[in-house]
Structure formats: structure tokens, C-alpha cells
Amino acid sequence: QAYAMDSSTGFSLHSDIVANYINNFGSEAQKHYWLTRMASGETVTAIAMTETGTGSDLQAVRTTAVLDGDDYIINGSKIFITNGYLCDMAIVVCKTGDSEKGSANLSLIIVEADRMGFSKGKPLNKIGMKGQDTCELFFDHVRVPKENLLGMEGMGFMMLMKELAWERMLVAIICQAGAEAALAHTVQYTKERKAFGKTVSSFKNTRFKLAELRTEIDFCRAYLDRCMQLQLEENLGIDAAAAAKYKISEMFSKVVDECLQLHGGYGYMLEYPIARAYLDNRANRIYAGTNEIMKELISRSL
Ligand SMILES: Cc1cc2nc3c(=O)[nH]c(=O)nc-3n(C[C@H](O)[C@H](O)[C@H](O)COP(=O)(O)OP(=O)(O)OC[C@H]3O[C@@H](n4cnc5c(N)ncnc54)[C@H](O)[C@@H]3O)c2cc1C
I want to staple 168 with a disulfide (CB 3.0 to 4.6 A). Which of 66, 220, 241, 300 is the partner? Predict the structure, then answer.
């Protein structure tokens, strides 16, 4: 999908991220109920961490889930939630204890979209990825049974850290595929486009620029493949996943920018895939943890 330069719909968030939370931390009943519906497409899912008051600092979330008999009562709101508008279920990051305390009180709770008090804002007006709905979610005394808790109470931060490493790998994979596709489009375009009676690809500047991009892409591919191998061996560190996300998303932005330039004015027109990639790719340096936070994580391992 990324190689096709198609960023519409949040399939990956649904199948590669939310499904993993359920599969890795859910009870047998939760797995049976949700994974079957998610696989059939009957249920669209989201994961809601970010709030208006906090994004990078997950420990500071203000949404609360307070036990009342056998139920949790959830209050708060979330923003920038991929699949938020279409979702039938969201995994919501909540504080289940003292909201002033840090990570120890974070829990993940499954909230069905038809619960009383759960409402959605309009899809937000993003600069790119127009096919994906990204919106605000509001929780006003939403009552959910205790059985909707994912994993154990207070273990939310640990689960997020584990799954966010894979989420960052996914971003890196998507960026790698996108960069390879952008280069392929540009090689083809410059071979066809003529200026001064020659193809654009025949200019030394074009050949050198494409050679530089190809080299950067190949280096990133080697690192990504190494990380993938470690992931399959269950040995991928948080720092290595952060490095892959940071470096490959930066590389993708650079590749798309240079490739757009080689398309001339056509590169600025949205009917050309390179123009859409230019707008779509920008979010990769922001979500799944900003690249500044990636550098924080890498630096902690030094
Ligand atoms: C298209 C899109 C889809 C998204 N989908 C989801 C989703 O499905 N679920 C979800 O929960 N969230 C989602 N997000 C939210 C995203 O994860 C957050 O926007 C991101 O984590 C940054 O948080 P923030 O926007 O609050 O920025 P802030 O945390 O306010 O950061 C602002 C700036 O300060 C920098 N900064 C912050 N802390 C530090 C630090 N310690 N050191 C150095 N610099 C720092 C940041 O890097 C950034 O440049 C999405 C965002 C976008 C754009």
C-alpha cells in the first residue's frame, strides 16, 4: 500500500497496531470477540493516546477511568485519533488512579463507540492523508464494564512502550516503501520529460541527485532489514526502533522533496503522486512519537 503511494484509510493502524494490543494483552474472550470482527472488517478500530494538553508526554494524560462497582466511568477527551470518526471501538489510554501520578496509573480500556456518553468530533482538516479520518473523541461519564480493561490495571505504560516500538518500525517500513516508490516514479518521469532537446534524466545534476537518493535509500533499507530481523527474533530494542523511525522518516521527506523538484511544476500539482507524497509524508516525523522524542529515546541508551 505504501509503495503504491496510497495513504488513504488507516488500515495499518487497525490491523498492524490495534490488533497487536488485543492479541498480545487481551483476554481469550477479548481476542475471540474483537479479532474475529476486526479481521472480517465488521469492526474498525482506533487507539486513543493523545490529548489536547499532552502528546509527547504520555504520562500526563488527563482522561480518567474511575471504578464504580463493576464498571469504569470514563471522562476526558482525545485528539488526532486516526480512524477516530469511523471507529466502532477505541483502545483508550486512561488514568485509573491518582491523575497527578505518572506512568504507574496508566491503563488501557476498550471502549465501544456506541456507549452512552462517547461522541466524536468532525474529521480534522489535515494538509495530507485526506483519505484517513483523524478526529477528536469525547468521553462524558462513559460507563464500561471492568472486563473491558486490557491487560492489568496500571500496566498501560509498559504495554504502550512495547507496542510503540513496533508502531515506529511500521512507520519506518511505510517511509522506506514510500521513498523507493518516489524514486521509481521520478526515474521514469525524468526519462520521459524533455528540456533543451534532451531528457531531464540526461542532465548530470539529475543523474547525481538520483544517485545520491538511491544511495540513501539503500543504506536505510539495510538498517531496516536488520531491525526487522531483530524484531522477528524478538530482540529489537526501543532505541533501534526509534532510530529506524527517525532516520527513515527524515530520509523519506528528503527524497520526496528532491523528487518533487525533479518533476518541475508538475510536481506541485496534486494529480501527480509525488505532490500527494510531499503532503502525506510530513506526518511521519510527528506521529508515533515525534522525531525529537525518538532522539531522546536513542540518547537514553548511550
Ligand atoms: C496525522 C496524525 C495522526 C495521528 N494519529 C494518532 C492516533 O491514532 N492516536 C493518537 O493517540 N495520536 C495520534 N496522533 C498524535 C501524535 O502522536 C502527536 O501529535 C505526537 O505524539 C506529538 O504530540 P503533540 O502534537 O501534542 O506535540 P507536543 O508534544 O506538544 O510537541 C510539540 C513540539 O515539541 C517537541 N517536544 C516535546 N517534548 C519534547 C522533548 N522532551 N524534547 C524535545 N522536544 C520536545 C516535539 O517534538 C514537537 O516538535 C496523530 C497525529 C497526526 C498528525
Answer: 241
